[in-house]
Design brief:
The protein has 205 residues and is α/β, with parallel strands linked by helices. The protein has ten helices and five strands. It has a five-stranded parallel beta sheet with strand order 2-3-1-4-5, sandwiched between helices.
Length: 205
């Protein structure tokens, strides 16, 4: 079983690429969903966060309140770095557990989806890392259409994320979604790349 990491900025087309991997029989692991599940259910993660940021991040029921935690870390770069170090450790362990389960279930492949795939270290457990990228203006338009937000807010979202050069330098493969092709054409491009990576004749299987 091969493990493919999928990363890239918002609005680039990762969702379409992941649908292709699902169609190819891959087990898709969404790191953002993993984080939210751990935040809600992992006592070990909760204890580590309280140990660093104090009990003030908890609500009345003893759960981590994301807004309180966010208010601390987004105003302090050192605190944000500490949060990432803690959460990435737990996420990486859970991703490894899910990959092992997929391997035991004899899945053809596993796909790990994360914007911070490279920074978190999760990319190191992947056989290949695919960066899905698109021009900034194309991403701005897609985010506006998808989320119904203003152009100014969409541009600020795009500006806050890693640029294309980062993904070119750190990914095994780059999947470019220039915006001049249909979603179906991009999906076919993604399929061709994934079949190459997986080295499987999916069409005849």
């Amino acid at each position: 079983m091969k493990v493919i990491g999928i990363t890239g900025p918002t609005g680039a087309g990762k969702t379409t690429a992941l649908r292709v991997l699902t169609d190819l029989g891959a087990e898709v692991i969404d790191c953002d969903a993993v984080y939210h599940e751990l935040l809600a259910g992992s006592e070990q993660l909760r204890a580590a966060l309280v140990g660093r940021f104090g009990p003030g991040i908890l609500d009345g029921a003893g759960n981590v309140e994301r807004k309180k935690l966010g208010a601390i870390v987004f105003a302090d770069k050192a605190a944000l770095s500490d949060l990432n170090a803690i959460t990435h450790r737990f996420i990486c362990a859970e991703v490894e557990r899910r990959i092992a389960a997929a391997r035991q279930a004899l899945r053809w492949a596993a796909a790990v989806d994360a914007i911070a795939l490279i920074e978190s270290g999760v990319g190191e457990i992947c056989d290949a890392v695919v960066g899905v990228v698109a021009p900034a203006q194309v991403r701005v338009r897609r985010i506006m259409e998808r989320e119904g937000i203003s152009e100014e807010y969409a541009r600020s979202r795009v500006a806050a994320q890693k640029g294309e050069d980062f993904f070119r330098a750190n990914c095994t493969y780059l999947l470019e979604n220039g915006g001049g092709e249909t979603r179906e054409a991009f999906a076919e491009k993604a399929r061709a790349l994934f079949e190459k990576i997986l080295d499987q004749d999916w069409k005849s299987s």
